[in-house]
Amino acid sequence: MSKEKVEKIVDDLVKRGELAPSESKDLVNRLVERGEEEQSQFKTWIQDQVRRVLTDIHVPSDQDIVSLEQRIATLEKRVAELEAERSGPAAE
Fold it and tell me: How many angstroms separate the CA atoms of 47 and 32, rounded?
């Protein structure tokens, strides 16, 4: 819920006499803070769930990809070296 909606609801409570005007600002701030905390907790929960699902279906992590790229580069270099050694004596 947006801060504007919270303020409208609190203003309605003040108009109906269910909340003192002096308490309205504090209540709005507390409700907005609580909403932000819950939103942060929900975001963290969603990230954890997505991470778990990606792990469960064996999607490689960024680090896995970097490691594989490094291994491929090493293998490509080694293959090039072996090809150079193999073609060197035959060229003479």
Answer: 22
